[in-house]
Design a protein that fits this description.
2 copies of one chain form a homodimer. In chain A, a hairpin with a 6-residue loop joins strand 24 and strand 25. Chain A has helices at 12-22, 39-58, 72-76, 79-85, 125-135, 180-200, 247-251, 276-285, 311-330, 345-354, 365-369, 391-416, 424-433, 445-455, and strands spanning 26-28, 35-37, 62-63, 69-71, 88-99, 106-108, 113-120, 144-153, 167-177, 207-210, 222-229, 235-245, 255-257, 263-265, 267-274, 302-306, 335-337, 359-363, 372-377, 383-387, 418-420, 436-440, 458-463, 468-472, 479-487. In chain A, helix 2 (39-58) packs across helix 6. In chain A, strands 3, 8, 9, 10, 11, 12, 15, 21, 22, 23, 24 and 25 form a 12-stranded mixed beta sheet that branches. In chain A, strands 17-16-18-19-20 form a 5-stranded mixed beta sheet, sandwiched between helices. The first copy, chain A, has a 4-stranded antiparallel beta sheet with strand order 4-7-5-6. Chain A is built from 14 helices and 25 strands. Chains A and B meet through strand 2, helix 2, strand 3, strand 4 and helix 3 of A and strand 2, helix 2, strand 3, strand 4 and helix 3 of B. Strand 5 (88-99) of chain A pairs antiparallel with strand 5 (88-99) of chain B.
Chain lengths: 490, 490
């Protein structure tokens, strides 16, 4: 197949858009801003979900499900939350349609107007804390450690597949605790779970840190995040974990009788990652030939392609291919033998390159004569002839090697693109060039906003365990005690 | 704990409502008609999902995800579909809120009115077939075998937890085929998958059959269903699989080039089961003491409860309990040791009975002295002292026995409640008494509707492999070639 894929050099943004569609991950739908996640993309998401879900359960969480709709008035209860979330959203105002009296089609039945409008959840803190109110009486009911896998809707004006869509899929953890310390520990635990997942399964290196006050989640006292760097030098927030203090408990009047028999407001956290991670995955690893997927989450880890000139050769190859397929399957490797006769082998090579399958095995009559196969790894595109003896073991090791190599390559890129600067001039240059810029800032929202207006750069995070050093703010020259990470971001 | 559960005899409907809430499966929410599925209920759903999902994949299907919203005009395209679905639904008319200029709170921003209203999906045939149009050009693109796990919304006026809620969770399979035969085979395959799942995992016996024209899915040419019988003698439709013919392909202009190089409309099926199955599960097996859950899907299969008078005894019991827990866990049995000191053992016995945990193990000092434990099975409430030797093996067999016994008991009840009648008088009596009534019907919609108006009974299905026999319609006396199954239904 001819991929006709724009290169990253030519137009990074177009390369991304084309790649998502051509590799069969997702496509736009008839509904503005909503995407269709195609089977290949959804299998990738399922693999991510399964691993994350196991991690959540291993850390004591259980899943539950809360309503899609939130009464409008709930948003007004938490002052900063309403500013952040209740504005651009899908509003349900009616509950019935009727046949159009003037002709064809159907129209909204004006007699079926809701007394109070319902908002399609952009995030579920309000409806969940309204529910928790009935679940919590005493410290014996705490902690509550719930997670929800759900769809959410935020009415974005400019959308891009996976990165920013009106509807997206995510998980949102919502926990309730009896003390500030316990809630803070949970907030930190979950950002560590995210970092573990994103680095060790998705192969994306991240920097853990806290958000500046200006970039915090609407309603949070503190937001921890993991920040990744894309190949075009822009940062991407890959996951967040929020310490919500007692804000939502106060907004929804959720008190508990503590061990000292006193009524106290409950402490809260929330944390989430979304299908946006797939965008980060694509932009971290893929190249001009297509996707490059990490073996641990790839929908398909190995593809076997026969190379033949006639039916006799195909038969001969198929015998060996099926044996190899069976032995790989027995080793828990996801493998497909593509013996479709309607496509040439060269077309198939291209197709699976585009789809980022980590390992390709090609088998032709000459390989069989020599009891070997040709193996091509997607990350480096290196080819090698390998003896059939112990092939499953070889592939197992190769998949691990690809996983490690992808992370290391991405980490080297990231590390090479962190620039320390001390003057405004250098700051502007560094932001223009791309990557993380590590610089002093005077700690005020005004300065942060001014920097954003001048350069489009935002503070991505204040890294955990950030070295303390005296310095001067790159914009105002005012004193600063630590550097923070700036970047332009998705 | 005091359960205070209404008995089935006293008030079946109230028994059900109380049981769902008291056993921590689900509760109503602040949003009319929408439920909160609590962790215990959601774990049950996850177990069901996992098994079903594996079955779907084993039969060649993959998951995908389609938009939550459907443009209003899509519903008008398939004439009978719009009648069935587009009426009672949640309608999104606006995409923004703003601060109320007259005071506190937020109001809908009238400037943010959608050009075309969006319907929150009640089912996804329309948006999916609009998508398939772009996926299908030739027979090489067929079949498409997609499934979606999703939330859907149908604005029901009278709701009941799990059985009928405005929002519910389900899966919907949507397949596209090149021939009528293939689509019909798929329709049948999936009703068989559902029957397999519902009978062999949920322990609910079902009757497979086809719906009468009047009870068909809106837009289908044929609807296959599985029908179960609840303890109060009412039927419950547990799953449906629809042969959609070329209706949706025509509505959305989805044609393919067949092997003879001719353009043809694509053939379709759709099939689904929902959280309603949990309602069926409860009403099939549970008793006046609470839930009775089949071991294969129970969130917790075994609970171990210590019986002790002082801390010394608890310590002693805990050593043995932890050993047993470890050995059961090693045998892939889901087990919990509840050593909370804040509740008495009698309270715990009640609690886990209410929650339907299949097996309870009680351990006291006297049991330890005799190297045994007391085992109580939830389905029969029989207690037995069992030696600790090979306990895991014993429990494994016991769980299998409980699973089998629950199915057999439900099947016996169902079989005892199928009444064959030949006169209208007997029909009315039988329907009044409850259960399935197997009777002749003249095959017309008019008669079906008249019977429903007189007795509230509907045709649940025309069983597969239904014996053909000459007879007379119980209402009109007109000739009939086969009996059909009537019942009052949920």
């Amino acid at each position: 197949m001819s991929k006709g894929l724009t290169t990253r050099e030519e137009n990074y943004s177009q390369w991304y858009n084309e790649l998502v569609v051509k590799s069969d991950l997702a496509e736009t739908s008839a509904v503005r801003g909503c995407m269709v996640i195609k089977p290949y993309g959804y299998t990738l998401w399922e693999n991510m979900q399964r691993i994350l879900d196991n991690m959540f359960k291993a850390t004591g969480h259980t899943n539950a499900y809360f309503p899609l709709f939130i009464p409008k008035s709930f948003f007004s209860r938490e002052a900063s939350h309403v500013e952040g979330f209740a504005k651009e959203c899908a509003v349900v105002t009616h509950y019935r349609l009727k046949n159009d009296p003037d002709g064809k089609g159907i129209v909204v039945d004006e007699n079926a107007k809701l007394e109070e409008e319902l908002i399609v959840r952009p995030t579920s803190e309000t409806i969940i804390w309204n529910t928790y109110k009935n679940w919590i009486q005493s410290y014996r009911d705490l902690p509550i450690l719930c997670n929800q896998w759900a769809n959410v809707v935020r009415w974005e004006m400019r959308t891009r597949l996976f990165l920013r869509t009106a509807e997206f899929l995510w998980q949102e953890g919502h926990t309730a605790h009896e003390s500030k310390e316990e809630a803070l520990a949970e907030t930190e635990k979950m950002i560590n779970v995210y970092a573990d997942f994103v680095e060790n399964y998705m192969g994306i290196p991240v920097i853990k840190g806290r958000k500046s006050a200006n970039e915090r989640f609407a309603g949070a006292l503190d937001t921890y995040c993991i920040e990744a760097l894309m190949q075009d030098g822009k940062a991407l927030q890959a996951g967040t974990s929020h310490f919500l203090g007692q804000n939502f408990a106060k907004a929804f009047d959720v008190k508990f009788l503590n061990k000292e028999n006193q009524l106290e407001y409950v402490w809260a956290t929330s944390w989430g990652v979304s299908t946006r991670l797939i965008g980060a995955l694509i932009m971290t690893h893929s190249d001009d030939k297509g996707l490059v997927l990490p073996p641990k989450i790839a929908p398909l880890q190995v593809v076997i392609i026969p190379v033949y000139r006639n039916e006799e050769e195909l038969k001969q190859v198929s015998v060996v291919a099926e044996q190899i397929k069976a032995s790989l399957t027995a080793s828990n490797i996801t493998v497909k033998y593509d013996d479709r006769d309607s496509y040439r082998s060269g077309w198939k090579f291209n197709e699976y390159e585009l789809k980022g399958v980590p390992v390709r095995i090609a088998i032709g009559p000459r390989d069989i004569a020599q009891n070997q196969v040709e193996i091509c790894r997607r990350d480096t595109l290196e080819k090698q002839s390998v003896n059939n003896e112990n092939l499953a073991e070889y592939i197992k090791n190769l998949l691990e090697d690809i996983q490690t190599n992808m992370f290391n390559k991405a980490k080297q890129f990231r590390d090479n693109n962190i620039t320390k600067v001390d003057t405004w001039e250098d700051f502007e240059k560094a932001i223009e060039k791309g990557g993380f810029v590590y610089a002093h800032w005077d700690g005020t929202i005004e300065t942060e906003v001014a920097i954003k207006e001048k350069t489009k750069a935002t503070i991505r995070c204040i890294p955990f365990n950030n070295p303390q050093e005296e310095g001067k703010c790159i914009l105002t020259g005012k004193p600063s005690k630590e550097r923070v990470l700036f970047a332009k971001a998705y």
